[in-house]
Design a protein that fits this description.
Blueprint: H1 2-34, H2 38-59, H3 69-86, H4 97-130, E1 133-146, E2 152-162, E3 165-170, E4 185-191, E5 194-199, H5 206-230
Antiparallel strand pairs: 1-2, 1-4, 2-3, 4-5
Length: 234
């Protein structure tokens, strides 16, 4: 009875949150057509990024929270910089706001690079912790998709028997280095409480994103170093 009451209370809370979110979205959208001041328009635009970023941070799984930080940071920058632009008396005369804005945007890209490194590794660690039950699996099919660059990528679909049921689970890792071999058997680790969560020790596709993230971090950090060396003064 208590559980049903809590579930009902949760549904009402989520419904109320949905109405508030819808009202905020509509009012903010109308604001783009009413507000004529460029700084206020930028701030209105920034609060979209900030709110969506914070929503992901509070709702996402632990290892996914970092992916929303660039959104929140860019949104905060779009709010703070125009505010100081409207109130120049708050800014020291020798501070260059344009340079600060560039640095804040670069921080967003730097955080995105960190996300590309930390999130896949954290996700692998999480899967390794919860997937404690070994099963013998067979690649029964192959999911095919198209990457952002237009290349064809593949993900194996594993079939295995667990708790008297035949499961078919697609891997979350897509790649184009090796095409999955249908019929091939392997040892998988699954989450006994949720068999759709799987962990395959010999899957290394996630490292591609990690390497790209490292390159982004190095590149953006170099630019930030040059800007900071030059100084924040115009």
């Amino acid at each position: 009875m208590d559980n049903e009451y809590l579930q009902e209370k949760k549904k009402k809370r989520e419904k109320l949150f949905g109405y508030i979110f819808l009202a905020w979205f509509i009012i903010s959208f109308v604001g783009f057509f009413i507000i004529e001041n460029e700084d206020y328009t930028t701030m209105n635009f920034g609060q979209y990024f900030l709110v969506f970023g914070l929503m992901v941070i509070f709702k996402a799984k632990k290892y996914e929270k970092l992916t929303a930080l660039p959104l929140a940071l860019i949104g905060l920058s779009c709010i703070v910089i125009p505010y100081f632009n409207m109130h120049p008396e708050l800014v020291p005369a020798d501070v260059d706001l344009d340079t600060i804005l560039v640095l804040l945007i670069l921080c967003g890209f730097l955080t995105a690079g960190l996300s590309a490194v930390v999130v896949p590794i954290s996700k692998r660690k999480y899967q390794k912790e919860v997937c404690t039950c070994e099963v013998q699996a067979t690649i029964v099919d192959c999911a095919i998709s198209t990457s952002r660059k237009g290349s064809t990528v593949y993900a194996p679909i594993y079939g295995f028997w667990f708790n008297g049921k035949d499961w078919k689970v697609r891997s979350n890792s897509y790649g184009n280095i090796v095409v999955p071999e249908i019929g091939k058997t392997c040892t998988l680790k699954i989450n006994p409480e949720n068999p759709e969560e799987i962990f395959y020790e010999k899957s290394y596709e996630y490292l591609i994103g990690v390497y790209v993230g490292i390159l982004v971090i190095v590149f953006v950090s170099s630019i930030m170093y040059l800007l900071l060396t030059k100084g924040l003064t115009g």
